């Protein structure tokens, strides 16, 4: 969340910053701003509420230039969405700061700094960074030392870039809890929250680590660790192949990403799944010998990733004979939990920077887990670097805020983890073969499922005027119903709840009427008859149902039930297959409602704040 870009060059950096912000807009889009320092020592600032386009228009109408600049696209945590709260924040027109994270002790810092005469113009926590650095400068420190001193006073999380009008040859950056990457150019250098922002200008990157402070000049980067010692951090060459910046002819990134699923799932399987099973060590170096001893899995994740973890619990316990708990990261990190012997901690995150999940991993390291594995989509991210084992989902950049292909590739990874753990825990030959065969058929089944698009478009019309909805599933389709409900909430703003359908009679049946559409996920599995009884319970109370069902489940459309036949698939991959129609349903409902599909209100991707 919140996107930061900074550049120091001989040329004017405005367009580099604007392009970077556009590429980071998925991280926040309530306001944006840029501060520029030119060769004559002029520090200027332009800020706008709304999207990056508003800022770009303003800069084209009133051009500004500079060879050092910092820019920011905001997802507000402290202080409303106003121009005054948009970053960069200044201290006395001298210090400019952009920040991703939350300074938790900002109120105390604010009172102290205000008492010392530093005037506040915003309601943000961020402004206290600018004034604290200014205060340290006023005490005689140079900019680098001032930042070293200032960060010692901050509690909470920050990825921050600071420039000083009186020190125009460098930017100082600091990281604690929020990601920052330095990009190396020729005679120019850059900084961003995500390498994606800098791909038009460089492919050489250095990730800062926790507690790092770095001095970035046009020709040099010097990194100091949390003890103030100079350290070398690796420079990596990015191998991101395609530039995710375009929609490839689709109207929205989300639609493009839904349609990419057959391809990315194929990529995710390639080289990892052989004819008769998975290849060795697909979860990382020495992974197989680590996994051999695992008897319990603890999964920790948030949002959509949490739903993939919930699905995995069904698989791991049913097929691999390994016990499994799943917990929301923001809960796990703040409670004392029980660690089973020989436990594997699995974190899941698209970005690998999800603040709560990262904190959970760090906490778990002191709790006695045998090992940690992350299932993640971003190479080099904090979760990947800090976990013992990593499984990259290879979904490619996901820009739509509502996650789609990251989810289905996570599930694909979990089916392979089920195979890996099942090997030493008595998985039956039949189950092993069923999963392997299911995975082989997965890309083509996903393609087949996308052909439901037209029928789902028609169906979406019936949801546009609804305010509430209910999603039902059983067994490993229950988390898929939860994910379907989350998608609908996220992008169409229709209130949606998911229930394990056996729970209906314990309360939610009271909600049923003809204004509450009920979406049912019904593959042809061993729970089908039970599910059919639940469907009858809804019908008897006048509910209107939309049933996504296997043809062989023999549901009939009538005036209370509309049936959408989903291609027949094996039980092991059914949760992945049934995800697609629910994604499409949410997408087309959102289109009819005219919401901002890729950047839904109040949300942002890569949740780097608590
Ligand atoms: N706390 C700052 C930055 C917010 C942020 O990092 N969001 O992801 C603010 O509210 O402006």
Biggest sheet strand line-up: 3-2-4-1-10-9-11-15
| Cα gyration radius (Å) | 25 Å
Helix proportion: 25-40%
Beta-strand fraction estimate: 15-25%
End-to-end distance: 10 Å
Number of strands: 25
C-alpha geometry: globular
Ligands bound to this protein structure: glutamine hydroxamate
Number of helices: 18
How would a crystallographer describe the biggest sheet?
8 strands, antiparallel
Question: What is the residue-averaged pLDDT?
Answer: 95
| Structure classification | alpha/beta
Low confidence ranges:
none
Oligomer: single chain
InterPro entries: GATase_2_dom, GFAT, GFAT_N, GlmS/AgaS_SIS, GlmS/FrlB_SIS, Ntn_hydrolases_N, SIS_dom, SIS_dom_sf
Catalytic activity: D-fructose 6-phosphate + L-glutamine = D-glucosamine 6-phosphate + L-glutamate
Keywords: Aminotransferase, Cytoplasm, Glutamine amidotransferase, Repeat, Transferase
Subcellular location: Cytoplasm
What is the secondary structure topology, with strand pairs?
Elements: E1 3-8, H1 14-24, E2 31-37, E3 43-49, H2 52-61, E4 68-74, E5 89-91, E6 95-103, H3 106-115, H4 127-138, H5 143-151, E7 156-164, E8 171-176, E9 181-184, E10 189-192, E11 204-207, E12 213-216, E13 221-224, E14 230-231, E15 236-237, H6 253-259, H7 261-269, H8 287-292, E16 296-301, H9 303-318, E17 323-328, H10 329-332, E18 343-349, H11 355-364, E19 371-376, H12 382-386, E20 389-392, H13 405-422, H14 429-450, H15 453-460, E21 468-473, H16 478-492, E22 495-500, E23 518-522, H17 528-539, E24 545-550, E25 561-566, H18 574-593
Parallel strand pairs: 16-17, 16-18, 18-19, 19-20, 21-22, 21-23, 23-24, 24-25
Antiparallel strand pairs: 1-4, 1-10, 2-3, 2-4, 5-6, 6-7, 7-8, 8-12, 9-10, 9-11, 11-15, 12-13, 13-14
Bound molecules: glutamine hydroxamate (HGA).
Glutamine hydroxamate binds at residues 1-2, 28, 74-79, 99-102, 124-126, 608-609.
